[in-house]
Amino acid sequence: MLELAVKANLPVIGATTTDPVNLGAVLHAATGKVANVFDCSARDLSLPLGTRLQPGTLYYAYDPPQTVNWLLVYQAFVTKKSTLVVVNPKQMHCVMFDVGAIRVPKKMVRDFVKKYASDDKFEDVYRALSGLSYKDVIEVSKLAMTAHGEYTPRAIRAIRQAHYGAVRGLQQVSTDYLHYEPQMDLMKWVATHGSLLKLDAPELLTPRGLLFCGPPGTGKTMGAKYIAKTLDLPLYMLEIGSVMSKWHGESDENLRTALNQAELNEPCILLIDEVEKLFKGTDDSGISTRLLAYLLWWLQEHKTKVFTIMTTNDQASIPPELVRPGRLDRIIEFFRLDHLQAAKFIAVLVAKLGKAVGVTGIDAKEILVGLYPDASYPTSQKYWHSHATIFEAVLEKVRESFINQSQDEESVS
Q: What is the separation of C-alpha 171 from the centre of its chain, rounded to a whole number of angstroms?
């Protein structure tokens, strides 16, 4: 949008950035025009830093004072058929065409990454830096190489999660987990559609989102982590409750800012956990209704590779317009595990948890029988257990074994 506005010679453009240091270089790279500094505090608006306005020239002013007479500025730039980009104004004036945040041109970031990334890691490192200002790209890269000794997506995400990109209602979530047993249809979806989020695929083919529904503890949130980790994409969580504000209009702005930040970090996974809570509240002020309306609009209209995953424990409370084609692609149901699935899950957990704390000799079959006694072997879902219940049962047995093993070692010594 910035490039288009400059090409159209719009007189005054309003924009935002967090990187004043490289502003001139970013504007040049984004528009193809050399950007000149304009002094908005000068009394004679035709004399920026002692030089008269040149026809068809691009200027920029960073953080201008509130006393500027923007009508005079507009008239001056109309006369010279030049463009002024007003960056981070105290208040957007009616004469300004708002282009929003100034995005760093992809070529600038790619050229920087080429200096340090190996060929096999180049594309993944480049994607891991998406959404940052050019200043932050440089800082995150250097911190990642210093702190982790490598220039990899994992190192970059670790630095970003710890130090960068804090936006109200949006937080980056770690994709690490000890073990997860994905359902077959989830694995099939990742295998057949997942790569489209990373490829330069046409918009028509790009997946938009999934709804995970099922009882609590069945691995819906872990399913989002599984997709993000398998595809090596960052995972962000949108917390609707944190977006809410008692001040008029602030909740709406918080949601727009959070979704815009997610778009800046494309390709990525956006998780909205327990989305039914947005539909169950009673809100006399109309805030929830407005947020829902904007969320539905964004799900339908956004053009970025932000893949949305929503989870719900109560699918009946979800309005049908939320999951219609164009907003989400499909619904995946999550179930509790039968005794055969649980046997495999328990065996892996016993091995991994035992190795993690140095405990051996745990009887996986004993845990299985405790959860699924002989009378419960019928296939009725009534007797099945959630991932969370099984994990807790294994963890409890590991605790007991660790205590017993520690006591035996003390008695021997």
A: 7
Q: Comparing C-alpha atoms, which of 105, 81, 85 is closest to residue 36?
A: 85
- Rounded distance, CA 294 to CA 302, Å? 11
| Contact indicator for 306, 237 with CB cutoff of 8 Å | no
412 pLDDT tier (thresholds 50, 70, 90): low
Question: Measuring CA to CA, how many Å separate 315 from each of 187, 276, 291, 337?
Answer: 22, 8, 20, 20
Strand-pair category, 209-213 with 330-333: parallel
Phi, then psi, of 332 in degrees rounded to 5: -115, 120
* Residue that has been written with the tokens 């969370």 in this structure: 388
Angle made by CA atoms 18, 22, 27, in degrees to the nearest 5: 95
Contact 45, 72 (CB under 8 A): yes
Cβ atoms of residues 64 and 86 within 8 Å: yes
How far separated are the first and last CA of the chain, in Å rounded? 73
Query: What string of DSSP letters covers 291-356?
Result: HHHHHHHHHHH--S-EEEEEEES-GGGS-GGGGSTTT--EEEE---B-HHHHHHHHHHHHHHHHHH
How would residue 308 be classed by pLDDT, with cut points 50, 70 and 90? very high
Matching residue, tokens 């702190």: 147
Q: Residue 207's closest CA among 223, 192, 217?
A: 192
- Could you give the domains of the chain? 2-101 (no CATH), 106-164 (no CATH), 184-333 (3.40.50.300), 339-412 (no CATH)
Cα separation, 226 vs 387, in Å, equals 14
Dihedral of the alpha carbons of 299, 328, 195, 333, in degrees to the nearest 10:
140
Question: Is beta strand 12-16 parallel, antiparallel or unpaired with respect to 97-101?
Answer: parallel
DSSP 17-60: -S-STTHHHHHHHHHSS-EEE--TT-SSTT-GGG-PPPTT-EEE
**pLDDT of 49 over the 60 cut:** no
DSSP letter string over 374-395? GGG-SS-GGG-B-HHHHHHHHH
Which element (helix H / strand E) includes 282? none
Ranges assigned E (strand) in 158-208:
170-173
What lies within 8 Å, CB to CB, of 319 at 6+ separation is 279
Q: What is the pLDDT of residues 232-260, one digit of tens each?
A: 888 899 887 777 766 767 778 888 888 88
197-206 tens-digit pLDDT:
877 777 788 8
